[in-house]
Design a protein that fits this description.
Blueprint: H1 5-17, E1 30-36, E2 42-47, E3 53-57, E4 61-65, E5 73-77, E6 87-92, H2 96-99, E7 101-108, E8 111-120, E9 123-135, E10 145-147, E11 153-156, E12 175-179, E13 195-198, E14 205-208, E15 214-218, E16 232-236, E17 261-262, E18 270-275, E19 288-292, E20 297-301, E21 314-316, E22 324-329, E23 335-339, E24 356-361
Antiparallel strand pairs: 1-24, 2-3, 3-4, 4-5, 6-7, 7-8, 8-9, 10-11, 11-12, 12-13, 14-15, 15-16, 16-17, 18-19, 19-20, 20-21, 22-23, 23-24
């Protein structure tokens, strides 16, 4: 779907420039199109070295959209246990051209697991189950999965609705894990196991800035202990305790690590995220942007090179596409973000949902 220039200009004026006055069309125009549609909660997304786009849906599909193709093809189905769990994160190995590895994080009956796939001659197959027995529940299964600049694989898990597990460094629940390509603990981990940080409630997104500082999104409480809200952005540093369930965002003390931003009594339900790259994005370049499910928008922050907050938030596409789950940047600099409306009673899905949208300059 190509938006006509006149309509797009109105779109930008109404929904972007009011909240984001820094972004300018200049000699180019900001375009928005539907990249894929008729999906069931698209979550993990990534690009192969040849420009082909790989993405998964929470109910088990892994799809491939070849570069410049009009549509996508189902290339694998996983027998998963959907709810808030299911087929979640997807990470393409940075050395894919040599090893052909793709990693997924999924919920099966009774637990979550990390699986390594292999793609050769266009065929995707299971190579190995690397890590299993990660606590699972109908809610709070995490889902973030990404390679870091150090070449190791990072995985965000949830507390599986058992908050005390987040403080237990013998449990994989409520953690960010740091792993090698075989699912083992990466060298240098602070507890001599797979755990990188602990005290998390539900980690669904993280990324690194140009200086290698890791920022993660974090869901705050919805009813536990009578607490509410207080979603977080956290600067992730090895061995640190991010407080759940001892404290909610903004109330950490002693050895607990406070968020660099927390929402108070507003609810985002933040999910996938990325740092924006490319001079064509103007003052958005280098900003941290993420999908918000409950808040139904994209939220953007300027974060300093040291990982601290540099500027107040800017909200984009408020209520336009409803619940937004993940966002990634393509090799050509465009931003792809996904909706997550199928399976929710309120708000009802839009026609053709769920979708992946593409935002780019032309």
């Amino acid at each position: 779907m190509r938006i006509p220039a006149a309509v797009l200009l109105l779109f930008v004026l109404l929904f972007a420039c009011e909240k984001d006055p820094q972004i300018k069309t200049g000699p180019k125009q900001l375009r928005l199109e539907v990249f894929a549609k008729n999906l069931q909660v698209p979550w993990g997304m990534g690009f192969l070295p040849n420009g082909d786009f790989l993405f998964c849906e929470r109910d088990g599909e892994i799809n491939l959209k070849k570069k410049d193709a009009a549509d996508y093809d189902l290339i694998m189905f996983r027998a998963v246990q959907p709810s808030e769990g299911g087929l979640l994160g997807l990470a393409i190995d940075p050395d894919f051209s040599h090893n052909h590895f793709i990693f997924i994080y999924e919920t099966v009956v009774g637990y979550n697991q990390l699986v390594r796939l292999k793609m050769e001659n266009g065929i995707l197959s299971q190579d190995a189950i690397l890590l299993t027995g990660i606590p699972a529940a109908n809610n709070h299964d995490g889902g973030a999965l990404r390679f870091g600049p150090d070449g190791f694989l990072y995985l965000g898990t949830g507390d599986a609705t058992n908050p005390v597990l987040a403080q237990d460094t013998a449990s994989l629940a409520g953690k960010i894990l740091r792993l090698d390509r075989n699912g083992n603990a990466a060298p240098g981990n602070p507890f001599n196991n797979r755990i990188w940080t602990y005290g998390h409630r539900n980690v669904q997104g993280f990324d690194w800035n140009a200086n290698g500082k890791m920022i993660a999104t974090e869901h705050g409480p919805t009813s536990e202990f009578g607490w509410c809200c207080h979603d977080e952005l956290n600067l992730i540093e090895p061995g640190k305790n991010y407080g759940w369930p001892i404290a909610m965002g903004g109330t950490e003390s002693d050895s607990l690590t406070p968020a660099i931003y927390q929402t108070g009594f507003e609810v985002w339900a933040p999910s996938g995220c990325t740092f924006i790259k490319g001079a064509e994005w103007g003052s958005w370049e280098g900003d941290f942007i993420f999908g918000a499910l409950k808040a139904k928008r994209l939220v953007r922050f300027e974060i300093s090179s040291d990982g601290t907050l540099a500027d107040n938030r800017q909200d984009t596409l408020i209520d336009i596409f409803q619940r937004l789950r993940n966002i990634v940047q393509a090799p050509d600099g465009s931003l792809l973000f996904s909706s997550s409306n199928v399976g929710t009673a309120s708000p009802p899905p839009l026609a053709g949902d769920d979708k992946i949208y593409r935002l780019y300059w032309e």
